[in-house]
Every structure is written in structure tokens, then in C-alpha cells.
Specification:
By secondary structure, this protein is an alpha/beta fold. Helices cover 54% and strands 18% of the residues. The protein has helices at 42-60, 76-95, 105-113, 120-130, 140-175; strands at 2-7, 12-19, 27-35, 64-68, 100-103. The relative contact order is 0.19.
Length: 176
Amino acid sequence: MRVLGVDPGLTRCGVGVVEGVAGRPLTMLGVGVVRTPADAELGQRLVAVERGIEEWLDEHRPECVAVERVFSQHNVRTVMGTAQASAIAMLCAARRGIPVALHTPSEVKAAVTGSGRADKAQVGAMVTRLLRLSAPPRPADAADALALAICHIWRAPAQNRLQQAVALHASKGRTT
């Protein structure tokens, strides 16, 4: 499975592509950050994020896009920008018929480090180790995007089995 992880943000939107399957070594295919100037008009910034995501989709052709689920933060301006960048990533994937998965920050941290309360340094260290990199990706947004992709690769098989079981149960309920 090839997954584009997106750590949404208006100033720095982390992107990373990981390929592999659960239980096997994973491979990083690319990592980076889509940047926009903080003093640019909002519409221009959103267009820049869209162009950046589209370039990553064109270059890497992922089977799925994993986006960090926006959660309530203390700063409303920050959460709004994060939500807007998140929506752009989901829109770009949806236009192409690519499935989108949302993962909370604590789900990602738990999947990659074993603790949902891990800090940025711990996430970066584990991403480096899991992908056999020589150094943690910088900035942290890039490492977070790779962590999202890893999380999805590891969680998708179980999530798919759960969805199939729920669908099967629902279909049996309708026929009896």
C-alpha cells in the first residue's frame, strides 16, 4: 500500500509518502513541506496548498491519503487554518477518487511510538528508526506526515476488517 500522509497547516503543510504493508519493513518514497507565506491573502495560501498537494499526488500516485484529524486547539485562528488545509487535502484526493482516512494525533503517536502522549522528538525518532533514515525529517511537520502514513498502513487492515464485519452484521439484520 502506498500512502500520502498529510499534516495539515497553512504555513507549513507536511507531506510524506510511505509504501509497505503491516508487519513488513516500510519504505519512504518522499517527504517535504508545502509552504505558504504568512502574509499572503488566505485564498492565495489555499491555492498554494492545493497546488502542492496536487504535485505530490501526481508524482507519487498514492492508493490512499491519510490526513490528521483536526482537533480543538486553544487558538481558534490556528485550528481554522489547519481545518482549511485539511479540507484542501481531502478535496484533492476526492477529486481523484483516492480514499481518505483521518487519524487523530494521539492515534498516530500511539501507532508509531506506543504512547498516545509521545512528544514531537519521540515521533521523529521512531519515524527515523521505522523508515531506516539517517536523521529525523525536518521540520517536525514532515516527520508527522510520515507518521500519519505509517499509522494508516498499520491500522488500515484492522479497520477494513471491522468495517466488513459491521456491514455483514447490518446486512444480516435486514434479511431476518
